[in-house]
Design brief:
The protein has helices at residues 2-10, 28-49, 66-74, 87-90, 96-103, 132-141, 159-174, and strands at 14-17, 52-56, 81-86, 107-112, 114-116, 121-123, 148-150. It is an alpha/beta fold and 176 residues long. The chain has one domain: TIM Barrel. A 5-stranded parallel beta sheet has the order 1-2-3-4-7. Helix 2 (28-49) links the parallel strand 1 and strand 2 (52-56).
């Protein structure tokens, strides 16, 4: 619940949560059931403070399709549980524009980063295989109008130059 206290102190409306990890000693079913139970336990406190718990897709072998992700979010039947979608993370096994259209109204926040599917490697925003025009069209189609955060370092050694590079790339993406 430290994240709730931090969100409240900062005036944030959303907290990111990676709900579970499937591994050799944790089955998919266990990950689903355990994460659901813990989130249901936390939801009343988040609702009271009007802070959304947003589930993020990461490489944790859990919530592997957009249909499943939607079902997971919907199962809580709560306006205080939503999706925090990461465009770059999905490229390893799907198409972000498909996920965005499926998630639709469930989207609360979005992370972007570059990823090259053929090399299975992170890149700068515009050098990977993300179909940015399709991603932006999908975000517009579902009416997404909230925060988009770049989750990567820019190119170069200088932090200010890195930030400028990321900002310039984001401007180009948003114009697509």
């Amino acid at each position: 619940m430290a994240s709730l206290a931090t969100a409240e102190a900062l005036g944030a409306d959303t907290v990111l949560l990676v709900p579970a990890v499937v591994k050799p000693d944790v089955t998919y079913e266990q990950a689903w059931e355990r994460s659901q139970a813990e989130i249901r336990r936390m939801l009343p406190a988040y609702a009271e403070k009007r802070v959304i718990i947003a589930i993020e897709n990461v490489w944790n072998r859990f919530l592997l399709s957009p249909i499943e992700f939607c079902s997971y979010v919907d199962s809580f039947n709560s306006p205080w549980l939503a999706a925090y979608f990461d465009v770059g993370n999905i490229l390893a096994y799907g198409y972000p524009e498909h996920w965005i259209k499926s998630l639709g109204k469930r989207l609360k926040k979005v992370h972007i980063k570059g990823f090259d599917s053929s090399k299975h490697a992170w890149t700068s925003l515009l050098k990977g295989t993300v179909n940015w025009p399709a991603v932006m069209a999908a975000l517009r189609a579902v009416g997404y109008n909230d925060v988009i955060t770049a989750e990567l370092r820019g190119e170069g050694d200088d932090a200010a130059a890195q930030a400028r590079n990321v900002s310039e790339d984001m401007d180009k993406i948003f114009a697509m």
